[in-house]
Amino acid sequence: MSPPAAPLSGVRIADFTIHAAGPFGTQLLGQLGAECIKIESKTRLDAFRKPHAVYGRMSAATFDQVSVNKLSVRLNLKAPEAVALAKRLVSISDVAAESFRAGVMSRLGLGFEDLRAVKRDIILLSLSSCGQSGPDSSFAGYAPLFGAWGGLGWMTGYADGPPVEMRHVMDHSAGLHAAVATIAALHQRRRTGKAQHVDLAAREVASAMIGEALVQASAGITPVRTGNGDLVMAPHGVYPTREPDRWLTLAVRGDREWRALACELGGPQAASDPRFATADARRRHREALDATIAGWLSSCDAGATAERLQRAGVCAHVSWSMQDIAGDPHLRARGATVEVSAPGIPPRLAVGAPVRFSKGLGVGIRRLTPALGQDEDYVFGELLGLSSAQRADLQRREVIF
Amino acid sequence: MSCEDGVREGEPPLAGCRVVECSRGVAAAYAGRLLAAMGATVVMLEPPAGSPLRTAPPLLGEPGESALFAYLAPGKRSVVCDPLCAEGQRVLARQLEVADILIDDTPLRERAARKLDQHEVGRRFPALVHVSVLPFGSSGPKADWDGEEVNLMHAGGEGFLLPNGLSHELFPDRPPLKVYGHFAEYQAGATAALAALCAWWALPQVGGQYVDVSVQDAVLSVGAFALQRLGDGSLEHRSTRRFRYGGVFEARGGFVELLTLEDRQWAALVELLERPSWALDESLRDPLERSRRGDEINHHIREWMSRHDVEAIVERAQRLGVPAAKYRTPAEVIHGEHERSRGLFAPLILATGERVEALTAPFQFRCSPLEPLREVPKLGEMMPEATS
Q: Is A213 close to B141, i.e. CB distance below 8 A?
């Protein structure tokens, strides 16, 4: 057997995805070893290459998580010759990935059938708001809209408040699910030698996140918005501590854990309060229970209390800001956070591959955000065999642009 | 759809893949669920009293079956297995001998007694992909920490950042709020499914291996943008992590989500709002200026939305090219015309015989459509095969 390598080494992706959801999915595959070639153009820069004012970022990003490990080439897909080059790139790739609205790739001449004509066993991943079929398939959207359409936004919120908008985690969850389906399609190709078109609708991923509520709805039950509460566990929620805006999360699954928590925070007598003796009783007296715990915690340091409760067998964790996460030795030890740097990018933390493989040398971040067109020598020169003169001509005519 | 030359119908992506799922929690069960939806044979090993997920809320009535289990278990097989006894060990070994993938969320301290620890499994089943799914993973200083969804949502960073936008404006003093249900555990389940399939992909090169997935890592992974912002010098907080304009708006009959990122979308929004004089201000053509004056813009949009019907707003918005959506209830989703047209839901028979519907899968394979999973397994239904 060969020495261990990243599991997807040898898999090549022609990556047409833009914004967050699609690029996150291909970024994951890149961290797991795939060679991911990002096809982009000056004519329509991806979000990270320009200011993003509505998010409060007034200039281009120097580091972009979802483009790590990616190679960059320029192709102005409005030019037929660029489309032909894109097809040549697909013909030597295993996967093509795109995140345009349904129908855009076909209009560009890069639809599934076009790609299959140049690569008979291509896996095409199409990630979109609403999918490749259905009455809403032309609808444009972003993460908060996926959450709104899919029901996750409605189910999230305070019971007496409005629905809550989902942010990048929704985009990235769609990209993660797309990555799962893409690898399943690769297995199918390995077994059958056939092409596949994976159709992922981000709003359907949002629906998958409330799958149990949808089962209830199908049975005529109206699911309840639980906020920070739980239908069974009590205490359960997010509690204030000594410091302002420093919250402790608690989830108590049974009487043993309750007694352990009460002993730690309120002393042995507290554990015998009959109002809280059983799970039923704790649920009935939920308000008094929460007030009691808030009283106990009002003089506690959140971090030290979480450690103490964990030692006593109680599920507890501080509500962490990104500053806490950046300073966490556990996440660093696991490689979930990694320090990265490059010319022009001072050392900073990035998110590594969310998986540790016992035989996974080479998994993780190998390089950072590529400059636009940075890898054309390799991709256009070595892989596609274009001469310097040909490339210069294509650049002059704004095909490579 | 044109896939004449594609794979044969009835031959799902993971046909032939055998998975053993040893799950107490949602993350491992969701990993198995995704693999089962794509055609893998997934065998749940349940304790004699049944998986705790069989009674996990929300329930379909009081008493009633678990809607959560009904979502997570369709299409799986059920074998009763207590690995602490000799018979259970025989059942376990028999399943693992023919499995490609093991997904296990047994806490670390309980693994050795069950012969489910990394090295024992690796020694006995060298061609097995062994995926561990734990709240904080199986390595690192906090590997023995325990956590439920609410803890993990906050350990991974996203919990602190919610709610943002309108909810936070209305209730600025309330504690941060988790996403509904099992979002964090679902991310970990999908990550575990991805990891399992990647390790299985590499099997011909490297053989079986051990794969360590953590719910905390998975939440951080999908929340990576906030760490990126920290690197840019900005510590995100739910009070400030909001769109400068756009967001959640209350309209007549419901709530609208509206977000315009591109200039053309802004221009279309001005049309949607019927070209009010404030929006025609020349300086608002500049996206940076719009962001600076976001509060003022939102004030105007709120006033306009409150006078209009939600369905009419979103219909006209999408026609004009303004990204806008109604916040739909679960009932609206399950009866949605778009979802019906795409076959997102399929009938499901519960272990009691009750009929409901469940989401088939959050992805489609257009050359070989997935077969819906039609039944939730009764406890131990596979025992005759597993012990014969």
A: no
Nearest CA-CA distance, residue A296 and chain B, Å = 17
Which of B 98-127 lie inside 8 A of A, CB atoms? 118, 122
List chain A residues with CB under 8 Å of B288.
51, 53, 58
Q: Is residue A222 part of a domain?
A: no
A80 and A201 co-located in one domain: yes
- Same domain? For A171 and A50 the reply is yes
pLDDT exceeds cutoff 90 at B9: no
* Count of structural domains within chain A: 2
Cβ-in-10-Å burial (0-12, 13-18, 19+) of B383 comes to middle
CA A182 – CA A174 distance, rounded (Å): 12
Using CB atoms, pick whichever of A218, A232, A349 lies closest to residue B231: A349
Q: Out of 1.10.600.10, 3.30.1540.10, 3.40.1160.10, 3.40.50.2000, which CATH number does the structure's domain B247-329 have?
A: 3.30.1540.10
Per-residue pLDDT band for B8 (boundaries 50, 70, 90) equals low
Q: What is the DSSP pairing of strand B324-326 with strand B254-258? A: antiparallel
- Topology given in CATH for the domain delimited by B18-224+340-387: Rossmann fold (3.40.50)
More confident residue, B373 or A117: A117
Dig out the tokens for B368 from the structure. 């070989």
Looking at beta carbons, which residues of chain B come within 8 Å of A330? 136, 140-142
Q: Is A101 a domain residue?
A: yes
- Confirm or reject contact between B241 and chain A (CB < 8 A): yes
Cα dihedral A377, A379, A383, A387 sign: negative
Instruction: Determine contact: A196 vs chain B, CB below 8 A.
Output: yes
CA dihedral A147, A152, A153, A159 (to 10 degrees): 180
* Closest Cβ opposite residue B198 in set A8, A64, A65: A8
Residues of chain A contacting B68 with CB distance shorter than 8 Å = 212
A218 inside domain: no
List C-alpha distances in Å: A36 to A367, A377, B370: 12, 15, 28
Q: How far is the C-alpha of B237 from the C-alpha of B162, rounded, in Å?
A: 8
- Tell which of A279, A300, A324 closes a domain: A324
* Closest Cβ–Cβ partner in B183, B210, B341 for A133: B341
**pLDDT one-digit tens code per residue, B104-137:** 999 999 999 999 999 999 999 999 999 999 999 9
Is the pLDDT at B42 greater than 60? The verdict is: yes
Question: What is the domain extent for residue A289?
Answer: 236-324
Is the ipTM beyond the 0.95 threshold?
A: yes
